[in-house]
Amino acid sequence: MQHFKNLLLLSIFSSIFILSNCGEDNEDPAADDTINNGNAEGDSTIVLDLDGDGVLDTDDACSDTPSGEVVDDNGCPITDTATETSLQQENFSEFSISLSGSPHPLAGIANGAYTKPHSPYGMAPFIDFVVNTDNTIDVLWRDVSNNKFISKISLETKSLVEEINIPTKINNQQRFLGFESLGNDRYIIGYSKDNEFGDVDAEAWYTAFDKTGTELFSTRLWGEEKQTITWSRGEPSQAGSALIRYSEENDFIVIYLAHTQLRGDGRRHQAGWLGFLDGNTGEILKNTNGNRIGNGWFFSHNFDQRGIISSQNTFYSLAHGDAYPRALGIDVWSHINGLEYGFDYYEIKNGSLGANKTLTTTGDLTELSNGNVAIVYSTEDDRQARDLKISIIDMNEPKIEHEVWLTSLDQQYVGWGSKVIQYDEEHILVGWNTFDNNQGTGSHFILTRLDGTLTTEAHSLEKSVLYPAQSFKKSADGKSIIFVSEEDGELKVHVIDIN
To answer: Can you tell me the distance from the alpha carbon of 359 to that of 386, in angstroms, rounded to the nearest whole number?
Structure first.
C-alpha cells in the first residue's frame, strides 16, 4: 500500500510541475533522472522511480526491476513462493473412528477447575498420538473416568487397525503423566500413585510395555517419602502438565513435568522437574559424579511444560514461569550434560510475582529446517484481548530473529491448543482456537514464511478444535499434517494436505 501512496504523490507532483511549466520547451524530466524543484540554483532534486515498481530510486535496492513484478519494501522482486501458497478448503479433510468407549469431551475440559481455555496452567493431554512408519497413528485417549486407551488407526484406509493393550497397573492409578512411543510397538506411560504413607498422588511412575500389554520396565522418579518431610517431592503434574519424549537415535527418554516440593517455609511450592531415563532399562541417567542429569526445581511456578527432541538429539523445553523467572523460556538439554543454556524469549508483564496470574498461554514449538525454532504463544500484555504471536528464535545465539502478531482480537481470545509445525520448505503452519468465555468459537489455520511473516489470511473451521497439550505431526509419507480431536463420542482424525 505504501508503494501505491508513493506513486500517487509522485503523480500529483508531476502534474503540478507540468502545468506550471506549460508552454516552455522542457525536456522529459526523466531524461536526467531528476526534477528541479523550482530553486534557481537547482541544488535540490526529487529522485524518480525509473523502473516503476512503486519504490523511489533513493530507496530502491533493485533499480531495474522488470515491469509487473511484485516487490518488497526494498524494491526487489519477491521470488518467495509463499505468495503463491495458501490454505484452501480442499486442503482439509477428516474422518471419524467409532470406539468401544468415548473420549473425554471438550466441554468437560474447558470447564475444569484448572483446565479452562484461559488458564495459565498446563495439563496432560486428553488425546495424544504418535506417527508410525507404516502411515498409521497410535492414538492415546482418556475417558471421563481417566481410563486410558490406545487405538491404532490407518491413515490410508481411515479405519481402526487394532486396540493396544495397556497394563492394568497403569489404568488403576490416578493422574496421567504422558505417553510416548519407543518404537517397534513399544510404549511408555506415566502415572501417579499413593505412597506407603497414604499420601495421595505422591509418587511419579513410568511404565514401558509392548502392544500385548507385557511390562518392559517400571521406574519411580520420586514421591516415596512422607509428604510432611521438608524437601519431599510429590503431586506430579500439579497445576501444570507432563510429557514424555524419546530419542530413538540415542535411546534416551525425557521426562518433563510439574510437581510440588515441601520447602523450608513449611509450604508446598510448585516447579518443573526434568530428567532422563535409559530407553532400554528405564534407569534414571546420572553423570560421572553420580548425580542425576536434569533439574529438580526448574522455573518456579512452572505452569506448562512443552518440548521436542531436536535434530541434534538435544531436548528443547518450553517453560511458563510465574515467579523465578516470571517469563516464558526455552532451554536446551543434553542427556549427558543436562542443562546447556537457556533464553527467556518473553517477559510476562501482567500480574505480580507468584500470584498465579500471567494472562498468558504457553503454546507450542517446532524446529525449522534452517535450525531456528518457531514458538507460538498468546498473551494479553499490551493487547485488547489475548492474541497469538509467533517468535522465530535463533538457537545459536540464542536471540529472537523475528516476531509477528498473528491475531488482533477485541472480545474473543486465543486460549489453549495453539500449535505450530513446518509446513513445507518455505512455510510454517500455525493453528489456534478462539473462545468466548469457555465456549470454543472455532479453530484457525494460517501459513507464514520461515521468518514468521504472514502470507495469506487465516482459514477457519467452526466445528473443529485443537486439543490442548497435543502437537501437529506430519504423516510418515510427508504428505499431510495430522491432529486428533473428539466429536459425538468418537475420535476425529483431521488431515491437512500439503500442497
So the answer is: 8
